[in-house]
Predict the 3D structure of the following.
Amino acid sequence: MPIFNWVALKPSQIDGTVFTELNDEKVLQELDMSDFEEQFKTKAQGPGLDISALKVKATQKAPSKVTLMESNRAKNLAITLRKGGRSIQDICTAIETYDQQALSLDFLELLLRFLPTEYERTLIGKFEREQQPPEELSDEDQFMIRFSKIPRLAERMNVMIFLGNFNDTAQLLMPQLNAIIAASMSLKSSSKLRNILEIVLAFGNYMNSSKRGAAYGFRLQSLDALLEMKSTDRKQTLLHYLVRVIMEKYPELTGFHTELHFLDKAGTVSLDSVLQDMRSLQQGMELTRKEFMRQDDSPVLKDFLKVNLEVMEKLQADSKTAKEAYESAVEYFGENPKTSPPTTFFPMFLRFIRAYKKAEQDIELWKKQEAAAKEAESSPPGSEDQPEVKLPIQKAKRQQMDMIAELKRKQMVKEPLIYEGKDGAIEDIISDLRNNPYRRADKGRGSAKKRAAGQNLQATPDISL
C-alpha cells in the first residue's frame, strides 16, 4: 500500500479534541478492506496484508494518561517548574517552611498563578478515592496533587512573597514620604514666599482696579501668567519688573527659594500610589502576624516580625504625616487636595522658581550691558581705535617731563649741567645762550639806546630746554 502523508498527532495532543470521541477500530471491523487494497496497491506490492493483524495492531494504541488539568494550563505549569529547577518535594517543602533561600521571588510569583482551582481539587479527590496509580499522571498533575496538600497554601504563598518584597518596598516608599513631608512643610512655613505672593497680589489688584474688583487671592497657576504679560515696549515681562522691584525694595526676599526643599522630588511622587502601597504592606504584615499565631514555631516568621515591626510602624506614621502635611499645604495655598495631586501642585512652584532665577539673570545682564554702553559714550573719540598707541605716548611724555624737572632742580642748586654730545657742541650752545641776549630771527637788531642799561635778557634757571 502507498504511504498516506498526513501529520499525525501524539497521544498527549488529542486531549479535549474531537479525536477522543472517534473509534476507528470499529470502522476497520465493519469494512472489507480487500477491495481497497486492490484498488490502491502499488506495482511492487507483495502479498496481501493480513486484515486480522491490522486490526490487532490498530487496537494496540498507547494508553493515554489520566489528566487533572486543562492542557494549556498544564503546559504553562511545566514551563514554570523547569524555571524553578527543583523537584516537586523540594518546592513544596520550601513553601511549608517559608524557605526564601530555596525559592526565588520571581518563581514564587509565577507559581502563585497555579493555585489549585475548586474543579482541580474535585478531580484530585476523585482520583485519590479511586486509588488509581500515580504513575498514570503527568509530572504536572503529580505536582498539583502534592501542591494542594500544603495547609493554607494561598496564605503561605502570599506571606512568602510579602517577606521577599518588604525591604525593597519599604526603601522605595520612605524617601517618597519624606519628600512629600519636607516639601509641604517648607512651602507652608516660608515667610519669604508669602511676602512674594503678597507683592504679586498687590500688583495684580493694582492692574485690575479699573476693570475688576479687588481680589483676595489667586490660583497658583496664575504665576505662569507673569511671564505672559509684557511691558509696552515688549522688552520685559511683568515678572522681570517684579523681580527688579524685589531686588531694589525688598532685597531680603531675593533668595526665597532657599527656604523650599525637595520640591523636585515631591513633584514626581504619586501620593495615591504610595498610600495604596502602604495599605498593601499593612495587609501583608497583618497576614504574616496571623500566620505566625497559627505556626509560632516558624523561626523565619519570628525573626521577620522582630526586625520589621518597628519599620512598619514608622512607615505608617510617616504615611499619615505625609498625607496630612500635603493636604494642609495644598489648602493653605487655596487649592483642592482632591483635584491637585503632588505631580501638579509642586511643579507650579518649580516653574515659578526657574522663571524667577531666569529673570534675575536677565536683569543682571541688562545692567552690565547698560554700564558698558555708558562707558563707551564717556570715552574720548578715537581712543578705542588706537588703544595700543595711547599708553606708549603717555609713558614717553611722562619720562620727558621727569627729565626736564630734574634739569631744573640741578640748575637751582648751581650744579653743573652735564650733556652728552660730540666734542662738547651742546655745551657750547648752552653757554652762548647764557652770555648773549635772545634775538628773534625774523626781526632786525634794535638800537641799543632803546634798551635801558642792565636790561639785557639773561638765561634763568626757569628756561625750558
Observations:
- Residues 54-64, 384-390, 414-426, 440-465 have pLDDT under 50 and may be disordered.
